Amino acid sequence: MRRDVRILLVGEPKVGKTSLIMSLVSEEFPEEVPARAEEITIPADVTPECVPTHIIDYSASEQTDEELQEEIKRANVVCVVYDVNSESTIEKIKSKWIPLVNSSANQWSKIPVILVGNKSDLQGASSMESILPIMNQFTEIETCVECSAKNLKNISELFFYAQKAVLHPTAPLYCPDKKE
Ligand code: GTP
Ligand code: MG
What we know:
By secondary structure, the chain is of the alpha/beta class.
């Protein structure tokens, strides 16, 4: 049995990583947020899977690339957050974030990834058309979810999916073909 779960949020600046964490904690949308939220720990008895869960924010304005890599190594699951209204933040999922997560992980196992499309309250069309090819390309992506820190849509679901990805992974995280 795993003793706790570390969930790390990464993604392009201003996609709403800090707002998502603060919305989860306070159950309301914070108009003003710091660049980076303090690490929070959710006690076991209030998590769906009854495991203490740590949620860690990342902000390029406060952390170096080395610090980011260290946090990725410590994480059990990484939420790559994008803005559903911004193609450039979606493009960066495959050009930057997934390769970075994979390069920080050890050679034989992959860290599960969840794609989190935030700001669905401002959304025109669904981002799924752009997201599905990325999901097909990278088996380490467990699932994707569209949510809104602003109207609190799918916030608790997102953290539940992240917890579930660690405790009940569906993708083959062990990759024997990579082992020479
Ligand atoms: P960095 O720390 O700079 O990387 O940014 P971040 O990803 O933590 O984003 P942050 O939470 O600071 O939010 C950026 C801006 O988007 C702020 O003005 C938020 O109020 C706004 N924002 C965040 N989530 C939502 C959302 O769900 N809907 C809308 N409409 N705005 C949002
Ligand atoms: Mg932030």
